[in-house]
Amino acid sequence: MTTSAERKGGQAAMHKPPVVSPQEWEAAREKLLVKEKAQTRARDALAAERRRMPWMAVEKEYEFEGPEGKKSLLDLFDGRHQLIIYRAFYEPGVFGWPDHACRGCSMIADHVAHLAHLNARDTTLVFVSRAPQADIARLKARMGWEMPWFTITDDFDKDFGVDEWHGHNVFYRDGDRVFRTYFINNRGDEQMGITWNYLDITPLGRQEVWEDSPEGYPQTPTYKWWNWHDSYDANAAPDKKWVESVNVGEAAFRNQDAGKKP
What we know:
- By secondary structure, this protein is of the alpha+beta class.
- The chain has 8 helices and 10 strands.
- An 8-stranded mixed beta sheet has the order 3-10-9-6-7-8-4-5. It has a two-stranded antiparallel ribbon with strand order 1-2.
- The longest helix has 29 residues, at 22-50.
């Protein structure tokens, strides 16, 4: 590692890692991989614990404004069992209004994965703000965002901890009853956007057989539900060729890991 205190343009010189042989580089990678796999297992264990968190019944009625008129909290589920609501700051008083939403909220919006994958796991994602629908529609068109985005009309943001800062609230619908199951904000929001991270904060998780979930939770074979975002069919069986491809890949991973065991 370079230890020179030489300065360039008033800034300390960048201390770069050593340059090594391919064999040394691979050894360093394998050493770090041990810690990375431990982190993955710890993240999975945390998600399993999250799925066992107690639920809080939502007894109060909430109303939102959408492109098609008024919607209740129950309506936002769009018929699915799980709902993730991100509170985005786009309203008078937010820097950038009315041309832009908050810079941080906009970066999160830019990272949202195609919603068809979440929908295939019985999960709906929506954004909510205090901006009128006309402004939200204009902003979405300008920025190329396609997620459902509703207007808060009551104390929803205050009641769920997002009146002064952004955050994701997670809800589960059991018939006509709604429960709050999880909440994440601050730097926790930075991980959101990818389908799997969204599913990891839901009460049902990714719904794959390898997950440690409470008894009776829905689970399907790992990877088999994956599909092109324009090809999901709730009543269709997994594609045979895709299943065969996944099985070959999983077997290769297992053999690789087995070869590394002492």
